[in-house]
Amino acid sequence: MNASSTPQGYGLLRLGRLSLLWHRRSLAVGLALLVLLGAAFVFCLSGDGLGAGQAIAALLGQGDPFQQLLVRELRLPRLCAGVLSGAALGAAGCLMQTLARNRLATPGMVGLDNGATAFAVASIVAVPTSLAPSALALTGAATAAALTFLLAAGAGARGYRFIVVGLGIGALFGALTNLMLARADIDAANAAYPWTVGSLNARPPLAVWLLASGLALGLPAARLLTRPLTAMRFSDSVAIGLGVRLGAMRIATLALSVALTGLAVAVAGPVGLVALIAPEAARYLGGQHGVPVLNAALAGALLTLLADWLGRTLLAPIEIPVGIVMAVIGAPYLLWIILRQPSGRQP
Question: Of 24, 113, 250, 326, which cross-links 108 as Cys (Cβ 3.0–4.6 Å)?
């Protein structure tokens, strides 16, 4: 490909025999989101009499010991948990919406969040170890995905049938979670509470590290899936004609969505509406081009970070869990999608 044949809106970089083609607007949006995320991170580190410069100095191990304790031990782990879980949910939502060709088909809508939550709560009530919530949240997300996919009977993996079955599976797991909490003793119920509403307060370090490792592997894998997923936005016959192996792609996409969702829920609980809003924001800003999984991850991280900041400061010293803040923000948006979505329009 030469410069004269580069499609409009794209850029071309040549490195010897290798060439890299990118969409200019998508790249600009990604860089802008990255800058905003960095600014929001520093902003959330500061506050309460701590300036941005002081927060950065404390982060680097300089300055007052109390400020270092505040930034490095209290605020930094919470912000890292928010960035990582938001990025995982944003990427998982983008993959799931593209797979189902429906803007409503997020992990929360098809039961993955509730499945992961139910298994995480069960691990706290029955097996109170630091690893159990992370491992069983992943198992719960996989179980919910398998049930939804099997009950939707293959073709139902696209469109509203998949969503309706997922809502039923999610309701079942939600009922099981409530039953376990009702029968648990007060201490176990209090320990499990953050996994039912979504919270970034005092997250288990092991779960955060597992999520970071999952993202380090999952985001590059998701990026590799974007080209065949772009073809899968058309009819199955067109995708097959373009060389896409539909069965393998659906399994790989679903497995990756399950892994990212389960690891995110193990850290932050069911903050599911991030997976609804972040991909849509990435598509809108990028001009509806392709499958913007990386931009959706950045948008999800930024959204979660700002929602957690609102929850901490809006009614301070009372803290509102990030899941509740996202529900307040996302519920009107969900209603807008349902009321305004033109018939047959897909992501």
Answer: 113
Distances (CA, A) of 27 to 3, 6, 14, 88, 328: 18, 16, 17, 20, 31
Does residue 16 belong to any structural domain of this protein? Answer: no
Q: Domain containing 187 — which CATH number? A: 1.10.3470.10
| pLDDT attached to residue 345 | 46
Calpha distance 99→254 (Å, rounded):
8
pLDDT of amino acid 294: 92
Classify residue 36 by burial, with Cβ atoms within 10 Å: 0-12, 13-18, 19+.
middle
Domain count, the chain: 1
Residue 282 is encoded by which pair of tokens? 């990435």
What is the token pair recorded at 167?
Answer: 């809502």
pLDDT number for residue 48: 75
Give domain status of residue 5, yes or no.
Answer: no
Q: Is residue 9 part of a domain?
A: no
Partners of residue 10 on adjacent β-strands: 23
**Residue 205 belongs to some domain of the structure:** yes
List pLDDT tens digits, range 128-137: 655 567 778 8
Regions of the chain short of the pLDDT cut 50: 1, 3, 155-157, 343-347
What does the alpha-carbon distance between residue 332 and residue 255 come to, in Å, rounded to a whole number? Answer: 30
Q: Which domain holds residue 334?
A: 29-340
- Contact (CB, 8 A) for 312 and 78: no
CA nearest to 286, candidates 23, 10, 89: 23
How many residues are recorded in the chain? 347
Rg (CA), the chain: 21
Q: How far apart are CA 346 and CA 102, in angstroms?
A: 5
Hey, which bits of 86-184 come out as E strands?
A: none
Three-state DSSP state, 66: helix
pLDDT value, residue 37: 95
The predicted model scores a pTM of 0.87
| pLDDT at position 43 | 92
pLDDT at 157: 47
Backbone angles phi, psi at 185, to 5 degrees: -75, 165
